[in-house]
Structure formats: C-alpha cells, structure tokens
Amino acid sequence: MGVQLVVSLLAACIMQRMAPHYSFARWLLCNGSLYRFRHPSEVELCALAGKQIPKPSKRDRRTNGESKPLTVPRDIDLHLDKSPVNALDALVLRFFVEYQWLVDFAVYAAGVYLFTECYGSVVDSSKEVNLGAIWCVLTVFFSLRSLHTLMSHYFRSDEGGERSVCLAFGFLLLLVAMLVLVVREDYLEFGLDSGFASVFDNLEVLARQQGYADWSIPVTKLTVKLGLAAICAFIGALLAFPGLRLAQTHLDAVEMNSGRPLIQLCLHLGFLSPVIIILLWIKPIARDFLANAPMGKTSVTLVSSEVFDSVRLWIIVALCVLRLALTRYHLQAYLNLAQKWVEQMKKEAGRIATIDIQRKVTRVSCYLTVVTLQYLIPILIILFSTLAFKALGEFSWGLNQDQTPGVTPALILPTVAPVLPGGLDDDEDGVEDMDEDVQATVARLSEAFSALRSVLTPLFFRGFFAFLTWWVAACQVISSLFGIYFHQYLMQN
C-alpha cells in the first residue's frame, strides 16, 4: 500500500494531535456566526411583571423549604438577549464529543480521498488497495452509528413518543424498500442483481479452488433481498427524525431570509436535492432521456453512457456541497425557536412559572449539536457513499473518457512462493526464522486481499453504493415531506 498507507497514518496522527487545538467541528459552531438566546433570570422576569421576588415565609421553611413556583403573566414584554455561541457553550452541549469526532473524521477522510484521487491520476495504483475509499466507507459506518446512538436515546426516553415515530417510519419504509427491490433494472438502474450474482459466482469459484468442489451458496435471491429490505427499514428509522428536523429548519430558514431571494432559492434547491438524486437513478428519466433524446421521429444522443456516469457524480457532489454551505442558516433557524416560542407565549392567557420559561429557552441551545448531527449526517452519508461508489466502482471524474463496464474478472489467487533453505551459519538462524515468518505473513495477507478483491468486484460495489445513496435520499424525501405536512398543517390546527 506504500504511499497511501503513510498518508493515512499521517492523517490519523494529525487528527488526534490537532483535535484539542483546532477542530473544524468546533469552528463550525463557534466561529461567531451563530447566536443563541440566553434565558432571563427571575429578577428580570419579575421586573417585567412589575413585582419583586417574594421571600420564603416561615411556613415555607417549615415544609422543607419547598415553596410554590414563582409565576409571571404569559403576556409580559419579554425580549431575549442574544450572544454568540463560543467554545465554552459548545463543550457542555449534548453529544458534543460524538459530533466533534465525526465531523473531524469526515474532514480528514475527504482529505485522504482527494490525495488518493490525485495519486491515482499520476501513478498506476490499480493493484493497490484504495485507502481513500476505505476512509469513505468508515465515514458512512460511523455516521450510521451516530444516528443509532441518537435513536437509542429516543428509545430510552420515558415519554415514548419518539420511539413510536421511529418504529412507524421503520415499518413504513420496510414496505417501500420491498416495493423498490422488486422494480426491474430497466427503471431503477442500481445493478444490484448483477452485483450479487457476481459475488455468488466468485464465491463458488473460490470454494472450488480451496478444495470444496460440492459447496454451493446456501442463500437464495429472495433471502438476500429480504435481508436488504430489513437493513433499509433500519436506515429509514434512523433517518426519521433528521428528516422531520430538516423540514422544520427549512421552513424557519426560508422565513428568516424572507428579504433575500437568492438565499431562499438556494434553500429550496438544497431541500429538493434528494429528489434530484432520486431522479438521477430512474433510467427512463435520466439516462434514457439523455442517451436517446426524442427529436421528432428520431432520437439524438446528447451524452454517452460513460459521460452520464461522470455527470451524475458531479451533480451529487455539487448538491452535497450546496447543502453543507447552507448549514449555518438551518442552525440559526433552529436557535431562533427560543424567541419564536416566547412570541407564541405572549399570545396566550394565564400565568407560567419562571422556571418553565428558563428551561424552554435553555433546552433549545442545549440540543444544538444534536440538531447539527441530524442535519449533517444524511449529507455525509450521501456524499461519502458517492465517493466510495466512484472509487470502488472504478468510474472516472472526466467528462470525455471512455470507460469499460464493470466486468467480473477471473478469480486467480496468488501462490505463496516457497522459502528455499540456504546455507547460513548458526548465528544467522534466528534472523532467517524471523524473515520466514514475515514472508509467510505477508504472503497470507496478500492472498486474503487478492481473494477479497476477486469476490467483491467493482460490479458489486457499483450496485451496493448506488442503492445506498439512492435509498438515503429517498428516506430523506419521505420523512422531510411528512415533516412539511406536519409543521404546515397539523401543528397549525
């Protein structure tokens, strides 16, 4: 692995050493562009209500110091003070450690991937393991793990409403996944069938080469698709609340930037970007339309199939970058919920405890990192799945290069070169034994990597990561559209 391994180890070392001093995740929240609302003190609330804080009476002292909660009218003229989110505020936020580690890891993974792409364009690295793609796969895995941590927090909640939402979305998306998996490749061009078929064929060839002549894959096509549908349902349950949160922050961000039409256009484009990603894999709408565009009674080829694959990669990456650039607007729209709740409170009658006002305002800022994870993780999954799709599927970024379709190569395992005995002296026997152990270990690792690369071919990676990218986008569309309906109609009623 040579140079790639050195760069990967260097990136991991820099990430570990630089995290306490400089962190991109910490800069994203604490660069001075985000403002949180501070909760008012009891003195300020009482002053707005026109009264002083009552001193505890002797009767209250006799009842273990427990007194009635201090209440104020709901229609007081309350205006919250703003202050920039700083590092001290961020360190005490919920899930801040998980957020900082994941975002920093994604940044360094993107750096390693860019290096491997540049390295591969200069040096022929087709026989090397693409460590940049491994970083991308790890980013996707860690992103899903972070979503699982958040969902497990919902399941431990005493109320149980969040648990019901996750389960409902899981069962709904299980049905959707089963419907999607029975659609023919003529409409959804994932390539899952050919990818799994190549894996099964290569496994049987590998078993015969290892001496298992009568061995066959004890898994049917239906079993594979049922297992994949269950995984899709689990991913859909993980993406339920991120989609609902995206709908809320999108509506608030559009309202917050009502006088900036360009920002509103970008916000709408970012919100609809998962829909565009879905359409890119619908063959009659995307590939067939561009490859055989109808012009009267004839058809004209606008772009070749290879160029379309590259254009699709560029479009997905550009949409992800756009959504990442809109992060600050969505986060500020979430932080503005504190002032929005205060304005709604003023329209209500009756009285409210001062501690309830303080808790409500503080709770918004306390869950800032949770909302940031819910916004960023789906983007990171789509982005790094696309990058892994390009690297492991052996696509190209160029728009004028011919590509060969993913073909399953012949499975040829390397043979271990025997170690010939030499006439060494007795004092060199220890060194010889150590060299033999190292050579044997390297040979076994090389054989294992070669067998793995022969079984998991580019044809399989194309189908798997294409489906993963498309499915995450589909889950976001379903959950965010339901969130739009919920916040626009159900909440108002």
TrEMBL record:
Residue spans crossing the bilayer: 132-152, 164-183, 222-241, 262-282, 366-389, 459-486
Localization in the cell: Membrane
Keyword Signal assigned: yes
Top-rank lineage group of the source organism: Eukaryota
Annotated InterPro entries: Transmembrane_161A/B
This protein's UniProt keywords: Glycoprotein, Membrane, Signal, Transmembrane, Transmembrane helix
A Pfam family of this chain: Tmemb_161AB
Signal peptide: 1-25
Predominant cellular place of this UniProt entry's protein: membrane
GO cellular component: a single term: membrane
Mode of membrane association: Multi-pass membrane protein
Family: Belongs to the TMEM161 family.
PANTHER family hit by this protein: RE42071P, TRANSMEMBRANE PROTEIN 161A
Protein's name according to its UniProt entry: Transmembrane protein 161A
Native species: Muraenolepis orangiensis (Patagonian moray cod)
Lineage: Eukaryota, Metazoa, Chordata, Craniata, Vertebrata
